[in-house]
Amino acid sequence: MRSLSHTGYRKGCYYAFVYGALICLLVIFLLPLLWVLGLSLKTREQIFTTPPLFLWWPTMENYFAVLSEGNFLVSFWNSFLVTTSTVLVSLFAGIPAAYTIARFRFPGRKLIFFSLLIMRMLPPIAALLPLYVMFSLVGLNSSRTGLILAYTTFSLPVIVWVTRDFFKSVPRDLEEAAYMDGASRTGAFLKIALPLAKPGITTAAILSLLLAWNDFIFAAILTNNATRTSPVLLSTYAGSETGTDWGAIAASGILVLLPVIVFSLIVQRHLVPGLSSGAINDARIP
Amino acid sequence: MRHHDRQHGSATTPSSQGVRPRNYLVQIAKLADFCFIPFTTLPTIVLSAAVFGVPLLLSLIMSFVAWSIDQPVSEAQFVGLRNYRDLFADRVFVASLWLTLGYTSATVSLEILIGLAIALLLNLDLPFIRIFRTALIVPMMVTPIVAALCWKLLLDPTYGLVDYLIGSPVIWLGDPTLALITVGGVNVWQNAPFVALLILAGLQSVPKEIMEAARIDGATKTALFRHITLPLLSPYLLVAMLLRIIFEFRAFDNVYVMTAGGPANATLVLSIYVYHTSFFSFDLTLASAASWIMLLIVLTVSLLLIAAIRQKEPD
C-alpha cells in the first residue's frame, strides 16, 4: 500500500511538473500576442497607465479609427490582391512542371529542379536589387504586377516542390491504364493525376499564400504609397517618432494577423509537412 | 525516356490496329504528347528565368563593373574584382559580415536547442497535449513585421509590459550590445515553434517497437535517447538547421522594424547593409558584390548540409 501511494505521489509531481512547463510555454508564446490584442482594445488613456491595466472594459474605438482611415483598407486590399494572384500564377505555372518533373525523365530536368532549389535558398535582398533595376527599366516598379512577379521567386519553388512530391506518391498504374485506353498525356494529367494530387495542391497553395501575405522585404522596395501591402504600411508606424498611437498600431497588427491565424489553425495539418517537405526532398534529388 | 517509350508503345499499338479515323486522332495525341514536356515546363522556366535568372546575372555583371545610377548603361566599365576589394576594405561591411555569421549561428543553435526541448515535451502522451501542439502554430505563422511591432511595444522602457514585469526599466533596443540579443531573441521566439513542430514530426516517426525492445533489454532512458532517438532524429535536426540557417542569414524584417540596423550599426546584418548600400547610397555595384558574397556563403553552407542530409538518408 505504501509503495503504491508513493508512486501515486511521484506521478502527481511528474504531472504537475509537465503541465507547469506546458503552461509556461503557452504563456511565453501566446501572452505577447494576447497582450497586444489587449492593447488594441484599450483607450489611449488606458494604454499609457503605469502600472498597466489588467482588467478593463474593452473598446472598439481603435478598430473604428483604423478602418475609417483609408490607408489601412487600401493596403489590405493590395495585400489580398497580390497574395491571391501570386498563388494563382504560381499554381498555373508550377503544377504542370511539377507533374512533368515527377513523371518523365528529360534533359534539363535536374537543371530546372536545381534552379528552383537555389531560388528558394538565396536571400531575397540579392535578387531584389537587380529586380528593382529591371522593373525600373520596363516600368513595373511600384506596380502590383511587378510585386506578383517578384513573389513568384519564392512561391514557384514551394509549389513545384510540394506538388511534385504528391504526384510522385500517386500510383502510376491509373495513368498507364488510361494510356492503354488511348488517352494522351495531357488527358492523363488533367483527368487522372490532377484530381488525385488535390491534397498536395492545397498544401502548396496554403504555403505560398502565407508566405506572400507575410512578406515584407519585396513589398518594401517594390511598392509605393498607393500599392503598398499591409506589412509595409505597418512598418511605417515603427519608424515615425509620432508613432505613439499604440492603439492604432495594435489594432492594425491584429487585423493583419487575424486572417493568418484563423487560416493557419484551420489548415494546420498541412503546415509543418509542407514547410519542411521542400527541404527533405532537395536532399533527395537524384 | 525509358518510361515514356513504354507508355507510348502501349498507347498506340491497340488503337492503330482499329478503325482508320481513330488512327488520325492518335497522330494528334502523339503530337500533343511530343510537345507535352516543353509545354508543361515552359511557364516555370520562363518565369524563373525572368524573375530570378536574369536578375542574378545582372547583379553578377554589376558586381564586376564601375557604374553609377545616374550614368547611362553604356558607360559601365569592367573593373574586375575592384568592387569586391572595395567591399572587404569597407570596415562596415566586414563588421556586418561577422555580425551576421554570429547572429545566424547563435539564433539557429538556440532555436534547435529550444525546439528540441519543446518537441520532447510535446511528444509526451498526455491528455490535452493537442491543445499545446496547436497553440505553437500561432507564433510561427505570425507576420514577422507584426511580431516585431508587437515586441517593440512590449519592450518599451516606459509603458512596455516586459519592463513592468521585471520591475526595472531596461532599454532593450537602444543599447548596442543588448539590441542584437533582443532582436535575435524575438526571432528565436518566432521560429523555435517551427523547429519544435518539425522535430516533433521526427519523434513521432520513431517506431515504438524499437523503443519497447530496447527498454525490455534494460536500456536506461538516457541510453534510449542517445542511441535510438537521436540517430533517428538527426535527419530532422539537419533539415531544421538547413532551413533556419537559410532564413536567419537573410534576416531583415524584424531588424528593420525594431532597430533599422542601429544603434551605432550594432544590428547591421548583411541584408540591411545591402539595403542601405543600394537604396540610400545608391552604390549598386558595391551592393551587388555584397549580395554575391551573401549568395556564395548561403550556397556553400546549404550544399554542405544537403550533402550531410543525403548521407543520412540513403535512398
From TrEMBL, chain A:
One of its GO terms (cellular component) is plasma membrane. The keyword Transmembrane helix applies. Pfam families: BPD_transp_1 (PF00528). It is a multi-pass membrane protein. It is found in: Cell membrane. Its main location: membrane. Belongs to the binding-protein-dependent transport system permease family. This is Multiple sugar transport system permease protein. It comes from Phyllobacterium trifolii. The lineage of its organism: Bacteria, Pseudomonadati, Pseudomonadota, Alphaproteobacteria, Hyphomicrobiales.
